[in-house]
Design brief:
- The chain is an alpha/beta fold.
- It has two domains: about 280 residues, Zn peptidases (Aminopeptidase, 3-Layer(aba) Sandwich), CATH 3.40.630; about 150 residues, Alpha-Beta Plaits (2-Layer Sandwich).
- The protein contains 14 helices and 16 strands.
- The strands form four sheets. Strands 1, 2, 3, 5, 6, 7, 14 and 15 form an eight-stranded mixed sheet that branches. A four-stranded antiparallel sheet has the order 10-12-8-13, covered by helices on one side. The chain has a two-stranded antiparallel ribbon with strand order 4-16.
Length: about 475
């Protein structure tokens, strides 16, 4: 017995030594900071904010082609040097600009999209969604965050560099899709195919995605800049239950609506398994040096503490989505009259696929989990597997991180799995360095403004967004 206790004590000491070694040998946090370029005096900040507000007044919805025509006229008038200097190729309403640097080095590609999602309840907005209202603190309007803020800041940066006589370090392409919100098939897909035909490979591709959030999101005092290095896949399915129609006064034991409700409940109570994907592991490793010693010990030894981390992250919707494929019932349809049993009941479920999941594996899961009386059909043309994961550390990531640290918030920069979708997935075959980040600082409550009510961009941050993109083009 004594010998056994000695062996146990030795094992504990060895374990503690391993844990401490991993904790104490964590790489030091990168603290390199780039210098953001100053804007020319002619680029008045109030005027820049005014142009953004004007851009938000164009309701560039997929079913509003005239809004895109007017928006394009507005861009030409607002950024004359850009349209005189850069070449422009149109793909329907999508716009692809090329700035020739005259230098022989790999180009970079900056992405944004012109289209916005509809507004379901305009009366619930504090400011009219398409009025482009500017007050002392914010620029209000649909698209301010998703994604005309980025689009306009990129063009402001281009115009500012041209006004000051500066040129990019390497060629720059700007791709502004017009149908990102419905899959990008007519915009990003066609622009990416054309770029591939030109045999172009990009040193860096940057799209919307991550942003700066309060450090409390990851247990830190300083803000964190989440730099997307991958994004989840997308798949929508329709479940259908069938039953005999009849009079509601003599309902059978099972009905189409009841069977459908049971199927949805089963999927919600039997979610896909949780795990720390590579992007999430890298995120935790990157923020580990900024944690208290206890948390640093945990993050530095994920091989042991992964179950603990998963239990913690599962507790909030925004972090649970980092761990697994998620499901959201979004549409229900059944019945024709209050006293008639429906013959069919349908539900639309939207899945966001985590790395390691595929559309085929998800279909197999649904077929296995659901009873035979529930049919499963893929819905819509917008389907995608999870994106490739950008390999970091890399020179491109370091460059973006140094620019992000130069912003007034001075954030900690961490890689990140984007739980939504972007046009970037259509370009991933053109570069092994694809990132998703918008240089804007938001609060946790602002996340609901994406596709929700009261979308707005902090007014004072907008000029810093412009300087970030200018610094990226200049290679700083």
């Amino acid at each position: 017995m004594k010998r056994l206790l000695q062996l146990l004590a030795l094992a504990v000491l060895i374990l503690l030594a391993v844990l401490l070694y991993h904790t104490l040998t964590l790489p030091q946090a990168d603290s390199r900071v780039a210098e953001l370029p100053d804007l020319p005096q002619a680029m008045d900040e109030d005027a820049m904010v005014g142009r953004l507000a004007a851009a938000l007044r164009f309701p560039t919805l997929p079913d509003q082609p005239d809004a895109f025509v007017g928006f394009h006229d507005f861009l030409r008038d607002s950024f004359p040097l850009t349209h005189q200097t850069l070449s422009l190729k149109a793909f329907g309403h999508s716009l692809l600009y090329h700035w020739d640097s005259k230098n022989d080095c790999p180009p970079q590609l900056l992405l944004a999209h012109q289209d916005v999602v509809p507004v379901s309840s305009p009366e619930k907005w504090q400011k009219p969604p398409f009025a482009g209202v500017v007050d002392d603190d914010f620029v209000w309007g649909r698209g301010a965050l998703d994604d005309k803020g980025s689009l306009m800041a990129i063009l402001e940066a281009t115009e500012a560099l041209l006004q000051s006589g500066q040129a990019p370090a390497c060629d720059v392409y700007l791709a502004f899709g017009h149908d990102e919100e419905i899959g990008g098939r007519e915009g990003a897909v066609k622009m990416a195919a054309w770029l591939e035909q030109q045999n172009l490979r990009f040193a860096l591709i940057l799209d919307e995605g991550g942003m700066m959030l309060p450090g409390s999101t990851l247990g830190m005092d300083r803000p964190v800049a989440l730099m997307g290095i991958a994004e989840k896949g997308y798949m929508t399915v329709e479940l259908q239950a069938e039953a005999e129609p009849g009079h509601s006064s003599r309902p059978p034991e099972r009905t189409a609506i009841g069977d459908l409700a049971a199927a949805i409940h089963h999927l919600q109570t039997h979610p896909r398994p949780a795990s720390l994907s590579l992007p999430t592991r890298k995120m935790l490793e990157q923020v580990a040096p900024h944690q208290s010693f206890a948390k640093r010990l945990v993050f530095a030894n994920l091989w042991l503490f992964e179950p603990l981390i998963i239990r913690q992250l599962e507790g909030k919707p925004e972090t649970n989505a980092l761990l697994r494929t998620t499901m959201a019932p979004t549409l229900l349809e059944a019945g024709v009259k209050e006293n008639v049993l429906p013959a069919t009941a349908n539900a639309t479920l939207n899945f966001r696929l985590a790395p390691g999941e595929t559309r085929d594996s998800l279909r197999a899961y649904l077929q296995n989990e659901l009873p035979d009386n529930i049919s499963v059909t893929s819905k819509g043309a917008f389907l995608s597997d999870p994106s490739a994961v950008t390999d970091i550390p890399s020179a491109s990531f370091d460059r973006l991180a140094a620019l992000a640290r130069a912003l007034p918030e001075q954030p900690v920069v961490a890689p990140y799995l984007l739980i939504a979708g972007t046009d970037a997935r259509h370009y991933q075959h053109l570069s092994d360095q694809v990132f998703r980040f918008m240089p804007v600082s938001l609060g946790q409550d602002d996340l609901a403004r994406f596709h929700g009510h009261n979308e707005r961009l902090p007014r004072k941050q907008y000029p810093h967004m412009v300087r970030f993109y200018a610094g990226l083009m200049l290679g700083q």
